[in-house]
Amino acid sequence: QLQAEFDGYKPYIRVRVNNSTELKLQVDTGASFSLLWDTAPVRQLRLQQGYLLEVGGFGQQQDSAAFQAELASVAVGPALFEKVQVAVIPMAGTGYFLKPEEATFDGVIGHDLLRHFSWVFDRSRGQISLSPQPYQAADNEQLQPFTISWRKVVVQSSLQLNSHTRIDQELLLDTGSRHYLKINQAYLDNNNIQLDGTLRDGADFGMSGRHANQRGKIRELKLGGQTMAPVPANILPADDEDDWWLVGSGVLMQHRLVLDYLSQRWLLQPLPLQPFQARFNLTGLELRKLTNGRFIVRDNLNPALQGWLQVGEEVTQMNGIGSENI
What we know:
Blueprint: E1 4-7, E2 10-17, E3 21-27, E4 35-37, H1 40-44, E5 52-55, E6 64-76, E7 79-89, E8 107-109, H2 111-114, E9 118-122, E10 127-131, E11 144-145, E12 147-149, E13 152-160, E14 166-174, E15 181-184, H3 185-190, E16 200-206, E17 209-218, E18 220-223, E19 226-228, E20 231-236, E21 246-248, H4 249-252, E22 255-260, E23 265-270, E24 285-289, E25 295-300, H5 303-306, E26 314-315, E27 317-318, E28 321-322
Protein backbone atom coordinates (compact mmCIF):
# COMPACT_ATOMS: atom_id res chain seq x y z
CA GLN A 1 0.00 0.00 0.00
CA LEU A 2 1.33 3.41 -0.98
CA GLN A 3 0.73 6.77 0.67
CA ALA A 4 -2.16 7.68 -1.61
CA GLU A 5 -4.40 10.68 -2.16
CA PHE A 6 -7.25 11.44 -4.57
CA ASP A 7 -7.95 15.01 -5.67
CA GLY A 8 -11.36 14.73 -7.25
CA TYR A 9 -10.86 11.70 -9.47
CA LYS A 10 -7.11 12.07 -10.03
CA PRO A 11 -4.76 9.69 -8.15
CA TYR A 12 -1.59 10.82 -6.35
CA ILE A 13 1.15 9.12 -4.36
CA ARG A 14 3.94 10.34 -2.11
CA VAL A 15 7.48 9.34 -3.09
CA ARG A 16 10.88 10.05 -1.55
CA VAL A 17 13.53 11.54 -3.85
CA ASN A 18 17.30 11.49 -3.27
CA ASN A 19 16.67 9.85 0.11
CA SER A 20 15.54 13.16 1.57
CA THR A 21 12.68 15.04 -0.12
CA GLU A 22 9.05 13.91 -0.20
CA LEU A 23 7.17 14.79 -3.38
CA LYS A 24 3.49 14.47 -4.27
CA LEU A 25 3.26 12.97 -7.76
CA GLN A 26 0.24 12.38 -9.93
CA VAL A 27 -0.04 8.81 -11.23
CA ASP A 28 -0.50 9.50 -14.93
CA THR A 29 -0.93 6.59 -17.31
CA GLY A 30 -1.24 9.16 -20.10
CA ALA A 31 2.36 10.38 -19.55
CA SER A 32 5.15 8.70 -21.53
CA PHE A 33 7.73 9.78 -18.95
CA SER A 34 7.97 11.28 -15.48
CA LEU A 35 8.26 15.03 -14.97
CA LEU A 36 8.59 17.57 -12.17
CA TRP A 37 7.39 21.15 -11.80
CA ASP A 38 9.80 23.63 -10.20
CA THR A 39 7.82 23.70 -6.94
CA ALA A 40 9.51 24.61 -3.65
CA PRO A 41 10.27 20.95 -2.74
CA VAL A 42 11.73 20.34 -6.23
CA ARG A 43 13.90 23.47 -6.01
CA GLN A 44 15.30 22.15 -2.72
CA LEU A 45 16.75 19.21 -4.64
CA ARG A 46 19.10 21.62 -6.49
CA LEU A 47 18.98 19.52 -9.63
CA GLN A 48 21.63 20.06 -12.27
CA GLN A 49 20.14 21.21 -15.57
CA GLY A 50 20.85 18.87 -18.46
CA TYR A 51 19.87 19.15 -22.10
CA LEU A 52 16.90 21.27 -23.13
CA LEU A 53 13.50 19.71 -23.89
CA GLU A 54 10.13 20.70 -25.28
CA VAL A 55 7.21 18.84 -23.70
CA GLY A 56 4.03 18.71 -25.75
CA GLY A 57 0.62 17.05 -25.78
CA PHE A 58 -2.75 18.72 -25.44
CA GLY A 59 -2.94 22.37 -26.46
CA GLN A 60 -2.81 24.64 -29.46
CA GLN A 61 -0.11 27.00 -28.21
CA GLN A 62 3.62 26.46 -27.73
CA ASP A 63 5.04 23.32 -26.14
CA SER A 64 6.32 23.70 -22.60
CA ALA A 65 10.02 24.52 -22.26
CA ALA A 66 11.80 22.02 -20.00
CA PHE A 67 15.17 20.47 -19.28
CA GLN A 68 16.45 17.00 -18.49
CA ALA A 69 17.70 16.21 -14.99
CA GLU A 70 18.75 13.10 -13.13
CA LEU A 71 17.45 12.06 -9.73
CA ALA A 72 19.90 10.01 -7.68
CA SER A 73 17.05 7.88 -6.35
CA VAL A 74 13.27 7.63 -6.25
CA ALA A 75 11.57 5.46 -3.59
CA VAL A 76 8.04 4.41 -4.58
CA GLY A 77 6.94 2.65 -1.42
CA PRO A 78 9.48 -0.15 -0.87
CA ALA A 79 10.68 -0.01 -4.51
CA LEU A 80 13.88 1.96 -5.09
CA PHE A 81 14.95 3.33 -8.46
CA GLU A 82 18.39 4.85 -9.03
CA LYS A 83 19.58 7.39 -11.61
CA VAL A 84 16.10 8.32 -12.78
CA GLN A 85 15.83 10.68 -15.75
CA VAL A 86 13.03 13.27 -15.53
CA ALA A 87 11.87 16.37 -17.36
CA VAL A 88 11.78 19.49 -15.20
CA ILE A 89 9.28 22.13 -16.34
CA PRO A 90 9.57 25.70 -15.00
CA MET A 91 5.99 26.76 -14.31
CA ALA A 92 6.59 30.27 -15.61
CA GLY A 93 7.31 28.92 -19.10
CA THR A 94 4.32 26.69 -19.70
CA GLY A 95 0.78 27.26 -20.91
CA TYR A 96 -0.44 24.64 -18.48
CA PHE A 97 -0.50 27.07 -15.54
CA LEU A 98 -1.72 30.64 -15.29
CA LYS A 99 0.14 31.15 -12.01
CA PRO A 100 2.54 28.99 -9.95
CA GLU A 101 -0.02 28.60 -7.14
CA GLU A 102 -1.92 26.18 -9.40
CA ALA A 103 0.82 23.58 -8.78
CA THR A 104 -0.81 21.71 -5.89
CA PHE A 105 1.42 18.70 -6.68
CA ASP A 106 5.10 18.38 -7.56
CA GLY A 107 5.02 16.40 -10.79
CA VAL A 108 3.94 13.26 -12.59
CA ILE A 109 4.98 9.62 -12.44
CA GLY A 110 4.76 8.27 -15.96
CA HIS A 111 5.21 5.12 -18.02
CA ASP A 112 8.96 4.83 -17.36
CA LEU A 113 8.28 3.92 -13.71
CA LEU A 114 4.70 2.64 -13.91
CA ARG A 115 5.65 -0.18 -16.27
CA HIS A 116 7.58 -2.10 -13.60
CA PHE A 117 4.51 -3.05 -11.52
CA SER A 118 0.96 -4.21 -11.34
CA TRP A 119 -1.19 -1.45 -9.81
CA VAL A 120 -4.51 -1.43 -7.99
CA PHE A 121 -6.49 1.82 -7.56
CA ASP A 122 -9.42 1.90 -5.12
CA ARG A 123 -10.67 5.45 -4.68
CA SER A 124 -13.55 4.36 -2.45
CA ARG A 125 -10.98 3.24 0.15
CA GLY A 126 -8.41 5.91 -0.67
CA GLN A 127 -5.90 3.18 -1.58
CA ILE A 128 -3.28 2.69 -4.28
CA SER A 129 -1.07 -0.38 -4.17
CA LEU A 130 1.61 -1.89 -6.36
CA SER A 131 3.35 -5.23 -6.72
CA PRO A 132 6.46 -6.42 -8.58
CA GLN A 133 4.52 -9.61 -9.41
CA PRO A 134 1.65 -10.08 -11.89
CA TYR A 135 -1.80 -9.56 -10.43
CA GLN A 136 -3.44 -12.72 -9.12
CA ALA A 137 -7.08 -12.54 -10.13
CA ALA A 138 -9.82 -13.87 -7.89
CA ASP A 139 -12.29 -16.45 -9.23
CA ASN A 140 -14.88 -13.74 -9.99
CA GLU A 141 -12.41 -11.42 -11.75
CA GLN A 142 -11.98 -11.52 -15.52
CA LEU A 143 -8.95 -9.50 -16.62
CA GLN A 144 -8.69 -8.28 -20.20
CA PRO A 145 -5.62 -7.63 -22.37
CA PHE A 146 -4.24 -4.24 -23.25
CA THR A 147 -1.48 -3.05 -25.56
CA ILE A 148 1.19 -0.37 -25.25
CA SER A 149 1.37 2.32 -27.92
CA TRP A 150 3.73 5.27 -27.67
CA ARG A 151 4.40 4.21 -24.06
CA LYS A 152 0.71 4.49 -23.17
CA VAL A 153 -1.94 1.90 -22.31
CA VAL A 154 -4.48 1.19 -25.07
CA VAL A 155 -7.71 -0.76 -24.48
CA GLN A 156 -10.71 -1.78 -26.56
CA SER A 157 -14.10 -0.13 -26.12
CA SER A 158 -17.52 0.22 -27.72
CA LEU A 159 -19.14 3.67 -27.95
CA GLN A 160 -22.79 4.37 -28.65
CA LEU A 161 -22.23 7.89 -29.95
CA ASN A 162 -25.88 8.72 -30.54
CA SER A 163 -29.22 6.98 -30.92
CA HIS A 164 -28.15 5.15 -34.10
CA THR A 165 -24.33 5.09 -34.29
CA ARG A 166 -22.12 2.59 -32.45
CA ILE A 167 -18.39 2.20 -33.06
CA ASP A 168 -15.62 -0.01 -31.70
CA GLN A 169 -12.71 2.18 -30.74
CA GLU A 170 -9.29 1.90 -29.09
CA LEU A 171 -8.93 4.27 -26.12
CA LEU A 172 -5.86 5.44 -24.22
CA LEU A 173 -6.19 5.10 -20.44
CA ASP A 174 -5.39 8.50 -18.95
CA THR A 175 -5.50 8.62 -15.15
CA GLY A 176 -3.95 12.09 -15.38
CA SER A 177 -7.15 13.51 -16.91
CA ARG A 178 -10.00 14.53 -14.61
CA HIS A 179 -12.45 14.16 -17.50
CA TYR A 180 -14.56 11.17 -18.46
CA LEU A 181 -14.04 10.68 -22.17
CA LYS A 182 -12.29 12.53 -24.99
CA ILE A 183 -13.29 11.84 -28.59
CA ASN A 184 -12.13 13.03 -31.99
CA GLN A 185 -13.91 15.92 -33.74
CA ALA A 186 -12.38 15.03 -37.14
CA TYR A 187 -13.85 11.52 -36.97
CA LEU A 188 -17.31 12.89 -36.20
CA ASP A 189 -17.08 15.49 -38.98
CA ASN A 190 -15.76 13.10 -41.62
CA ASN A 191 -18.49 10.57 -40.86
CA ASN A 192 -21.32 13.11 -40.47
CA ILE A 193 -21.97 12.08 -36.86
CA GLN A 194 -23.62 14.41 -34.36
CA LEU A 195 -24.06 13.69 -30.67
CA ASP A 196 -27.55 13.84 -29.23
CA GLY A 197 -28.44 16.88 -27.16
CA THR A 198 -26.86 20.30 -26.74
CA LEU A 199 -23.12 20.94 -27.06
CA ARG A 200 -21.32 23.59 -25.05
CA ASP A 201 -17.96 25.28 -25.52
CA GLY A 202 -15.10 24.35 -23.21
CA ALA A 203 -11.33 24.16 -23.06
CA ASP A 204 -8.60 21.91 -21.63
CA PHE A 205 -5.09 22.96 -20.67
CA GLY A 206 -2.14 20.72 -21.47
CA MET A 207 1.61 20.93 -21.90
CA SER A 208 0.98 22.92 -25.08
CA GLY A 209 -1.41 25.38 -23.51
CA ARG A 210 -5.11 25.90 -24.13
CA HIS A 211 -7.08 23.42 -26.26
CA ALA A 212 -10.58 24.61 -27.09
CA ASN A 213 -13.23 21.94 -27.54
CA GLN A 214 -16.91 21.22 -27.20
CA ARG A 215 -18.64 19.29 -24.45
CA GLY A 216 -21.54 16.89 -24.75
CA LYS A 217 -22.36 13.30 -23.91
CA ILE A 218 -22.53 9.95 -25.65
CA ARG A 219 -25.34 7.48 -25.11
CA GLU A 220 -23.25 4.57 -23.78
CA LEU A 221 -19.69 3.38 -23.15
CA LYS A 222 -18.75 -0.30 -22.89
CA LEU A 223 -15.30 -0.60 -21.36
CA GLY A 224 -13.47 -3.34 -19.49
CA GLY A 225 -16.60 -5.45 -19.24
CA GLN A 226 -18.62 -2.56 -17.77
CA THR A 227 -21.43 -0.55 -19.36
CA MET A 228 -21.93 3.13 -18.45
CA ALA A 229 -24.63 5.50 -19.67
CA PRO A 230 -24.73 8.34 -20.43
CA VAL A 231 -21.08 9.43 -20.44
CA PRO A 232 -19.84 13.05 -20.66
CA ALA A 233 -17.47 13.62 -23.56
CA ASN A 234 -15.01 16.32 -24.61
CA ILE A 235 -14.90 16.62 -28.42
CA LEU A 236 -11.37 17.60 -29.39
CA PRO A 237 -10.32 19.20 -32.69
CA ALA A 238 -7.79 17.04 -34.52
CA ASP A 239 -6.02 16.68 -37.85
CA ASP A 240 -6.05 12.88 -37.72
CA GLU A 241 -9.11 10.72 -37.00
CA ASP A 242 -6.99 8.42 -34.82
CA ASP A 243 -5.82 11.10 -32.37
CA TRP A 244 -7.28 12.07 -28.99
CA TRP A 245 -9.40 9.05 -28.09
CA LEU A 246 -8.98 8.82 -24.33
CA VAL A 247 -10.82 7.70 -21.22
CA GLY A 248 -9.95 9.59 -18.05
CA SER A 249 -10.20 9.30 -14.30
CA GLY A 250 -13.80 10.48 -14.32
CA VAL A 251 -14.63 6.96 -15.54
CA LEU A 252 -11.66 4.93 -14.31
CA MET A 253 -11.65 6.05 -10.67
CA GLN A 254 -15.37 5.43 -10.25
CA HIS A 255 -14.31 1.76 -10.32
CA ARG A 256 -11.68 -0.42 -8.75
CA LEU A 257 -8.96 -0.34 -11.41
CA VAL A 258 -6.31 -3.03 -11.80
CA LEU A 259 -3.54 -2.15 -14.24
CA ASP A 260 -1.01 -4.96 -14.58
CA TYR A 261 1.87 -3.82 -16.78
CA LEU A 262 3.71 -7.10 -16.16
CA SER A 263 1.11 -9.31 -17.85
CA GLN A 264 -0.47 -6.48 -19.90
CA ARG A 265 -3.92 -7.15 -18.49
CA TRP A 266 -6.40 -4.94 -16.74
CA LEU A 267 -9.67 -4.98 -14.78
CA LEU A 268 -12.42 -2.41 -14.28
CA GLN A 269 -14.56 -3.52 -11.36
CA PRO A 270 -17.74 -1.80 -10.08
CA LEU A 271 -17.60 -0.45 -6.53
CA PRO A 272 -20.20 -1.82 -4.10
CA LEU A 273 -23.25 0.45 -3.75
CA GLN A 274 -21.58 3.13 -5.91
CA PRO A 275 -23.09 3.12 -9.41
CA PHE A 276 -21.46 5.21 -12.13
CA GLN A 277 -22.52 8.87 -12.00
CA ALA A 278 -22.21 11.30 -14.91
CA ARG A 279 -21.61 14.48 -12.91
CA PHE A 280 -19.84 17.14 -14.93
CA ASN A 281 -19.60 20.83 -15.70
CA LEU A 282 -21.28 22.11 -18.85
CA THR A 283 -21.30 25.78 -17.85
CA GLY A 284 -18.13 26.66 -19.76
CA LEU A 285 -16.48 27.72 -16.50
CA GLU A 286 -13.14 26.08 -15.68
CA LEU A 287 -11.81 26.37 -12.12
CA ARG A 288 -8.57 25.07 -10.63
CA LYS A 289 -7.63 24.72 -6.98
CA LEU A 290 -4.76 26.86 -5.69
CA THR A 291 -2.25 26.13 -2.94
CA ASN A 292 -4.02 28.75 -0.77
CA GLY A 293 -7.26 26.71 -0.91
CA ARG A 294 -9.08 29.09 -3.23
CA PHE A 295 -10.08 28.45 -6.84
CA ILE A 296 -8.74 30.36 -9.82
CA VAL A 297 -10.85 31.08 -12.89
CA ARG A 298 -8.76 29.35 -15.55
CA ASP A 299 -11.25 29.84 -18.40
CA ASN A 300 -14.73 31.28 -18.83
CA LEU A 301 -16.78 30.65 -21.97
CA ASN A 302 -20.20 31.22 -20.43
CA PRO A 303 -21.77 34.47 -21.69
CA ALA A 304 -23.88 34.75 -18.54
CA LEU A 305 -20.75 34.73 -16.37
CA GLN A 306 -18.25 36.63 -18.50
CA GLY A 307 -19.45 40.07 -17.46
CA TRP A 308 -18.48 39.65 -13.82
CA LEU A 309 -16.16 36.63 -13.51
CA GLN A 310 -12.80 37.11 -15.23
CA VAL A 311 -9.93 34.73 -16.00
CA GLY A 312 -7.35 35.00 -13.20
CA GLU A 313 -9.78 36.02 -10.49
CA GLU A 314 -9.97 33.87 -7.36
CA VAL A 315 -13.12 32.34 -5.92
CA THR A 316 -13.16 32.44 -2.12
CA GLN A 317 -16.53 30.78 -1.47
CA MET A 318 -19.46 29.04 -3.16
CA ASN A 319 -22.96 29.03 -1.71
CA GLY A 320 -21.54 30.31 1.57
CA ILE A 321 -18.95 27.52 1.85
CA GLY A 322 -15.30 28.57 1.97
CA SER A 323 -13.35 27.35 -1.05
CA GLU A 324 -10.76 25.71 1.18
CA ASN A 325 -13.51 23.32 2.35
CA ILE A 326 -14.58 22.33 -1.19
